[in-house]
Amino acid sequence: MNENIKSIAVGEKYTMEIVDITHSGEGLGRLENMIVFVEGALPGDVVEVEIKTVKKTYAQGKLLTIKENSPERVVPECQYFNECGGCQLLHMSYEGQLRIKSKLVKDALERIGGLKDLAIEPIIGMAEPSRYRNKAQFKVDQKGMGFYAKRTHNLVHIDDCLNQPESAADVIKTMNAVIKDLNLSIYDEKTRKGYVRGVLQRTNLKGENMITIIVNGKDLSQREAIVNAILAGVPNVKSVYVNINREKSNVILGKKSLCVHGVARIVEEIGDLSFSISPNSFFQVNSKQTVKLYDQIKEMASLKGTETVFDLYCGTGTIGLYLAKEAKQVIGIESVGDAILDARENAGLNHFENVTFYQGRAEEEMLRITKVEKIKPDLIILDPPRKGCEETLLNAIGDLKTPRVIYVSCNPSTLARDIKILSEFGYEVKKVQPVDLFPGTGHVETVVLMSRKDKNDK
């Protein structure tokens, strides 16, 4: 294209080649010095676009036609892909998705982290990249259940989701019928009135189901009829819960969950460990890949049985417990009280006596343990939320001069930012291992091993 950047205007049409893609699935092309984002376009596509918005450094284009297909372009198996906001990359071959995710990690570490000529291990993908999720949060309106459309609160009604187990279709069909037959009112976010707010399905590798109805009320109305319908319509139901959510917000789950049928927990097995799952539990949504992720962490940790491991942002304690057999002791720290209760339950479930969990802010509790209890870590595991670590925590790690750090991240950008800070304290990257936990989406998990340079430990 030879158009001058000043000529790019809203409503104008251009033909351009897509050269890259963002984690949110937007194709990226260039018109002179202007970056143009195009939803639905893939690297290698030649497309005609209509410019919808123009900013100082970028523009948004609407895809009109694909004049030349990318070699990575495929027909999505999901009939809802163009509407539903759950997946971003189903129109790309799985091999292409893996290459893109590796590139996202490498680009972030080089551009933000300042790590040049960095070797990244080949990404660990799935043999069968479908039906992998163990958790589905269905929204509901007067027409039925589904997921929100991209960047909206408009519901896309579905009969099935190819990311969920096959029993998800039974859950959708059953709950749609229950709501209609029992004339249950639907919660309206605008008026704050109505009863049913959503349905949560949790499943383990055995195919056991936990079904939670989220309501704006004090209890489960017409309990017996609802439970009987679920048991008749959904296979292998071990638990039925009601979750009480009367908050005036779009938070999915309320704080109180009541078991109205079956067992209080279902159990997931990761490796040779068992983990207790409740409606509110945090747990990785892809159990099969979680084993591969945790095996990478264990390999990087390379424990000999004499080490003290700090598991920060430990959630329900899964990573720390996965390492506990090979460590002298594991100390987990997490700010969410319910997660700590689950972590302690999981430690008991697996009969570990060398694991201790504390509730509190990671940076504060870590300093208290090291200064007051005089316990110092040989290895620190970091598994923060998408926003990354607090800088005060990274500074504290630098001051402690802990020999090794393993950083587990779901966000390449904040991972790279935090690694750059740690590198200023004398840490260097030894290994980077991407793992695909979310096929069909732009999300990628990354495990990074860092150790202090010898000269800084003298």
UniProtKB/TrEMBL annotation:
Broad enzyme group: transferase
Sequence positions that bind S-adenosyl-L-methionine: Q284, Y313, E334, D383
Keywords: Methyltransferase, S-adenosyl-L-methionine, Transferase
Active-site residues, record numbering mapped to chain: C410 (nucleophile), C410
GO biological process: rRNA base methylation
Alphabetized InterPro entries for the sequence: MeTrfase_TrmA_AS, NA-bd_OB-fold, SAM-dependent_MTases_sf, TRAM_dom, U5_MeTrfase_fam
Enzyme Commission number(s): 2.1.1.190
GO MF term list: rRNA (uridine-C5-)-methyltransferase activity
TRAM domain span: 7-65
Cited PROSITE patterns: SAM_MT_RNA_M5U (PS51687), TRAM (PS50926), TRMA_1 (PS01230)
Pfam entry (one): tRNA_U5-meth_tr
PANTHER family, A to Z: RNA M5U METHYLTRANSFERASE (PTHR11061), TRNA (URACIL(54)-C(5))-METHYLTRANSFERASE (PTHR11061:SF30)
UniProt record similarity statement: Belongs to the class I-like SAM-binding methyltransferase superfamily. RNA M5U methyltransferase family.
Protein name per the record: 23S rRNA (Uracil(1939)-C(5))-methyltransferase RlmD
